[in-house]
Every structure is written in structure tokens, then in C-alpha cells.
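User: Fold this one for me? It's Integral membrane protein.
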Amino acid sequence: MTSTDNAERTDDALFVLTAVLLTPAQFPSVLGDDYPEACSALGLEPYAEGYGLVLGQDGEGARWTVVIEDVTLVACALAAWDCGMEYDLSPDERSVVDALPGWPLALAVATPGIPDPHDPRPEPGGENRPPLTPPDAETWGSAQRRLGADEIALQWAVWREQVDNEVEFVESGQQPNPSISRVLEDARGYLESPPPPGRIRSAFASGGARTLRVDGPGWSMVARTDDIAFVLLDDEPGEVLTVGRGPELPKLLESLDELAVRPAA
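Assistant: Here's what I get for Integral membrane protein.
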């Protein structure tokens, strides 16, 4: 395995384009509502330590997603890349768990000097698992709903500016918006019966607050513990619903944050 910078190119080399973490606290939301579901989508056991996913091309240009056990290596690479630094992500072959054809995410980059990205050719008599593919951007479903929530979490300030301070809040027993009521009821249910790891995730936010990401059957919620919440639903394509502070939301968010999985410091 090699980066794009430093090795003689051979057909069995992997030229790394990017990498992502697959852990209870951080995983590609496109794969599932929680960590076990994301692992299942790739045929992996949901080990607590997690995995790293290395996305690249072989010498013929074919797309591959290589699963490795060295989570720390991937985390270091991501931290360096985020700072604009170079990092040679070359995992030890002994840490490789599996090599999956295709990419689960859409990438706009490719390795120079080799054929354009394409799915690997089927091997005669081989297992030939269906290649991983990113979700169709022209349709709406669970994957697109989760990707929409990812975007809101990344661009919180932009989305928050579009919302008045006086936004709808649903009190217990009231249903001015049945969809929001259902989501809040499901979220309250997590306090009584904690969901699988990754359904509630907490990340750093400015001002000592936390950004919460909560997912459930057919819905995603993004919230700041000091502010409002946004909700996306499978059955309301492209719509972003808002939930104001009110008397109940702060308590709910605080309680969810206590259950949340957090990235390692």
C-alpha cells in the first residue's frame, strides 16, 4: 500500500486519495444510523476499537476501500491533512482487515497518471462482491437524509442565520407538527432505553457548547446544547424542520449529551 507520492506504481499498489474513521464516535453517516449498522454495511464486526477506511485506486485505476485496524494512523493522517500538512498514509499490511471494491463516498479527486476511477473488473471464479457506491444525489432516502444532517452540522452558523429566534417548539402532549413530536418522543425514549453506539454523537462547539447528532428510524436531528435543533425526515424529502429552545429542549439535549459517544481527545 502506498500514497500517491512516493512509490513505483504497480498494479497491486493502492494510491491513497483519502481516508475516514469508522468508530462509534465518528463514522460515515451514509453507511447507517449507528456504528453497528455502518459496520454491517461493510460486512464488519462492530468492534469498540473501530477501523480506518482508506480510499484509493490501484495501478489500473480501480476503486478500492481498504479496511485497517490502525485507527490511530488514520486519525493522525486526517489531523495533518486538516492542517494542510502532508502525511504519508501507508498502513502496515498486517493491519489490513479487508479490501472492498468501490468507494462508499463520492470523491472528486483521482490519482494522476493512471486510468480514471472505475469499479474493479470481476475475477473469474472469484467472490466478486458488489462494489461500494455512493448514494444517488438525485433521490431522497435514509442516506441522503443523513448526508443532509452532516452538512448542517458542518455549516451550523450558515443554517442558523436562516432561522428566526422565535421558532416552533413542541410541548409534551401537543402536536402543532406531528413529525417533530414523533422525533422528540423517539429521542426521549433513548433516555429510558439507550440506543446502539453512534446513534447519539457529541462534538465540540464554540462557547463551551456541544454539537449533538442524533439519529433514529427515518429521522436525523442536529442540535447545539446552547441553541435550537434541526430535524430531517425520510418522508419529507429535502425539508429541514426547526425546533426552538422552549422549556423542554435544553433538558432533552443535556440528557442526550450525557449518553453520547464522543471522539477521543
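One thing worth pointing out: The longest helix spans residues 178-192.
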